[in-house]
Design goal:
heterodimer; A: 306 residues; 11 helices; B: 251 residues; mainly alpha
Chain lengths: 306, 251
């Protein structure tokens, strides 16, 4: 058990930002922290890393109580805050050497650790440049390098792919999956696709409370409804389509374009195409629609309340 | 010993910005001017002084005024150097790096303090070099000179501790600078009340930075005065550590 958080609470004045959050992380897990803005993701992560003290609750890192023995516990931590903590007047080399020293990397290992972190994050070419002159994407990478260079057991990344271009995003996701093999990784995001691609476990936090804590496989099963968008040349008969088995509801986008919400367990796509062709509406386009985060939330919150 | 890592980084970072260089250059110019005026005064007074038995010598005319003026000028400058220490890191969101690293709050505060103290002691050393240059053509009361250097070092160390505390509680560097400047000036002039209508407040006299500084300057190194500065420094460092911890709890 690399990390154990029990009954965490955090109040900002009277406002309760985190309300009774408990979870665990083991080696080899990549835990995605999902939630809309202001849900309490960043506050939870700050508490895990000792930047904020919880109002109540307990955090254990590698079995060591973070609140009782902060210095020992933080040795097993690497943290990338939502704004990367970079000294703009330093070069990448200087900054990474400094953070290696802060994290207690010994003098003889420092050079190797810095070089390795730069290689993993694709920073070797810019290692002599000032951080202030780097693009936002590179600054984000320096932030990640800083979090992983001392081989921490637990790596906490707060929105690691913000500000990166699509190519960099896929590189960073690959890096996170790789890190997940030997370490425990927690990352926060508000994008569902990110969780689906890089995480093994997912937690959804809403208004400071955990409303879901599942493996990614279980989440996929839970998200039972799928959406498919169909365009035909002639207007289809909606009542005829909604009578098909597996179709839950139909949403009309325009005269010739409809969205069909269906149950994944009983996928009606084949029946839909057959019906449309038989009726002669001339199928022009049939495309699956990825479910938005909001749709998942709404369905989860609805489940949670019922 | 993580505080030394933070201290050396802080010291080097000060020299990466133009601020430290500018301050060093301007201060050196002003101190040189003060020093030369005092040398000039001495050459004018020399014939008269020669007549007086046990009269003030070269050291008495030049060293205490130079170090006294340096104290007042550093009272203005130290808040500028200390304002960014914690406050700046908080604003640039870089404090999270230190807070999530395996270092205690005490390490952070002491590291930051030693870093800026390094620069201030460098300024004191540069001031001290000027009277030492007189050794080429004259004699210097080494004891008195060392007492003055010690007094100025303790004084700037106290300034830096107060400045660091205000930087750790203020939300904006300018407020930190104004706050520490106001606090230091108040402590500097606190014993002015003693002159008015025979009123004497022993508490105010004890609290005044100036009084203890002048006692040391006169060459009398007493435990009371040295103790005052050490208590002042430790007090503000403890308050800073406390404020850093508190900030974690009640942000």
């Amino acid at each position: 058990m690399l990390l154990q958080a029990e009954h965490l609470y955090r109040y900002y004045g009277k406002h309760c930002a985190v309300n009774d959050v408990s979870f665990t992380l083991t080696r080899g897990e990549v835990l995605g922290f999902l939630g809309p803005n202001g849900a309490g993701k960043t506050t939870t992560m700050q508490m895990l890393c000792g930047v904020l003290a919880p109002s109540a609750g307990q955090i254990k890192i590698n079995g060591i109580d973070l609140l009782a023995q902060p210095v020992t516990a933080k040795r097993y931590l690497g943290y990338l805050p939502d704004t990367p903590p970079l000294y703009r007047e330093l070069t990448v080399d200087e900054f990474l050497t400094y953070s290696a020293q802060l994290h207690g990397v010994t003098k003889k290992d420092t050079h190797h650790a810095v070089k390795q972190a730069q290689e993993r994050c694709g920073l070797t070419a810019v290692s002599k440049r000032l951080i202030a002159n780097l693009s936002k994407g590179f600054q984000q990478r320096v932030g990640i390098a800083q979090a992983i260079l001392h081989y921490p057991e637990v790596i906490v990344l707060d929105e690691p792919t913000v500000g990166l271009d699509p190519l960099q995003i896929s590189e960073i996701r690959a890096l996170i999956r790789e890190l997940g093999r030997d370490h425990g990784v927690i990352l926060s995001t508000h994008r569902l696709s990110e969780v689906q691609e890089s995480c093994s476990h997912v937690q959804i936090i809403h208004q400071g409370q955990l409303i879901l804590n599942e493996t990614i496989v279980a989440l996929k099963l839970m998200m039972d409804t799928g959406i498919v968008q169909i365009t035909t040349r002639l207007a289809p008969n909606i009542s005829q389509l909604s009578a098909l088995a597996g179709v839950n509801s139909i949403e009309k986008i325009s005269e010739n374009c409809i969205r069909i919400h269906y149950s994944v367990a009983n996928n009606p796509t084949q029946r839909l195409t057959e019906t449309i062709i038989a009726a002669g509406w001339e199928l022009q386009e049939l495309a699956p629609v990825k479910k938005s985060m909001e749709a998942v939330f709404i369905s989860l919150i609805r489940d949670n309340e019922s | 010993m993580k505080c030394l890592v933070i201290a050396s980084r802080e010291f080097k970072t000060l020299f990466l910005s133009p601020l430290a260089w500018t301050i060093l250059a301007i201060l050196q110019l002003i101190f040189a001017y003060v020093f030369l005026t005092q040398v000039e005064t001495f050459t004018m007074l020399q014939p008269k002084l020669a007549i007086i038995e046990n009269g003030p010598g070269l050291t008495d005319i030049i060293v205490p005024p130079l170090f006294g003026n340096a104290g007042i000028i550093l009272l203005l400058v130290t808040p500028l150097l200390t304002m960014q220490l914690i406050c700046g890191e908080r604003r640039n969101k870089t404090l999270a790096l230190l807070l999530s690293a395996p270092v205690s709050s005490a390490d952070i505060i002491i590291g930051k303090y030693l870093g800026v103290l390094g620069l201030l002691l460098l300024i004191v050393a540069l001031v001290s070099l000027m009277p030492l240059s007189l050794l080429m053509g004259g004699e210097l009361d080494v004891g008195k000179f060392l007492a003055n250097s010690l007094a100025l070092s303790l004084l700037v160390a106290a300034f830096a501790a107060a400045g660091l505390y205000l930087s750790s509680i203020a939300l904006h560097p300018v407020i930190a600078a104004m706050g520490s400047f106001g606090l230091l000036l108040l402590l500097w002039i606190l014993d002015w009340t003693t002159g008015i209508k025979d009123q004497r407040s022993e508490l105010f006299e004890y609290l005044s930075l100036l009084r203890h500084f002048q006692n040391l300057q006169s060459g009398l190194i007493s435990t009371v005065d040295v103790g005052y500065f050490l208590l002042f420094i430790c007090g503000f460092l403890l308050l800073s550590i406390h404020s850093l911890d508190n900030h974690r709890r009640f942000k």
